[in-house]
Amino acid sequence: MGHDQEEEETPPATPTTTASTASNDQEEETWNHQKQTLVLELSEKLITGDLQAKIEAARDIRKVVRKSSVKTRSKFAAAGVIQPLVFMLLSSNLDAREASLLALLNLAVRNERNKVNIVTAGAVPPLVELLKLQNSGFRELATAAILTLSAAAPNKPTIAASGAAPLLVQILSSGSVQGKVDAVTALHNLSTCKENSVPVLDAKAVSPLINLLKQCKKYSKFAEKATALLEILSISEEGRVAITDSDGGILTLVETVEDGSLVSTQHAVGALLSLCQSCREKYRELILKEGAIPGLLRLTVEGTSIAQERARTLLDLLRDTPRGKKLASSVLEKIVYDIATRVDGADKAAETAKRLLEDMVQRSMELSINRIQHRAASCTPDKIPSA
């Protein structure tokens, strides 16, 4: 509704088609005039009406925008609705706050300029206040709004500096499934802001992120964002300690190395490498204990170029006697032999190493087949919003 329909082919002009085209153009012009009138009427009602009139106007704006084109969103913004809707977010009336929040959310979707104008109009502080409410519905609407607004690069520094991130981390533990997805995506958006003077996340985010990563498919878009955040957190000592202290923290990263997408495996091996590089004596045995070797060996062949390099470096650190050089394919057998020696002793090392290598090849084949079957069987739409 309200969209110009494109025709793949223009038929030869005949009196009939010419008349039909003229009729369609007239109908479209009439509809556009009616819609422009509606935009102006609702804008006027929002700007000059009493509180109840403003609430009704905000609800109607949301309804119109939901069913309309990007152009309609721009027309409402040009008519001056953004600033009064932001003011309504500060109202003590919860109906007013909800109506304005939903209207702003719909105005921002798929419209970069509106996203920036909403933040410029001062929407972020009242959204942060909504995140502090006990009302879960308001908290999750505010999370969705911050997610949408944080997709615009100019907005990221303002949102990152607003104190929203710790409140989004709380949603990771207490929100609905959609609320958690929105919070992870918003935090991921904010983590890519180069202007941040301080880290967006602290170690408190590790435990809920690990728990969410345990529950999701390791090759999903959600897992890619969660592992990206965990890799960032692994840079700090507090983050590394939190990963180690989280129930199944290292194991979950190892499983992601085995079963993840190209993106999530790269982030997961990056986090494990950060751990081992920070203190090899502390983390080497913890990583080996979770069975990391087969996945890392496969990653040296199947991962992205960055993941392959990280996997080789980590495998070199996991050896009994690292030589300070990067791992080449020719020494993979040596690594396995070192492990076999530690497990079964020097007498049986050769036999054990051969069996381990065979098991790794078999495991790699099974993982590849399982991954293909999972993707073929998965027919549910991606939960991650595109905004």
From TrEMBL:
PANTHER family: ARM REPEAT SUPERFAMILY PROTEIN, U BOX DOMAIN-CONTAINING. Residues 1-10 have a biased composition (Acidic residues). InterPro entries: ARM-like, ARM-type_fold, ARM_PUB, Armadillo. ARM repeats lie at residues 80-122, 122-164, 163-205, 204-248. SMART domains: ARM. It comes from the Eukaryota. Residues 1-33 are annotated as: Disordered. This is U-box domain-containing protein 15-like. Keywords: Repeat, Ubl conjugation pathway. It holds the Pfam family ARM_PUB. Residues 183-324 form the U-box domain. It comes from Durio zibethinus (Durian).
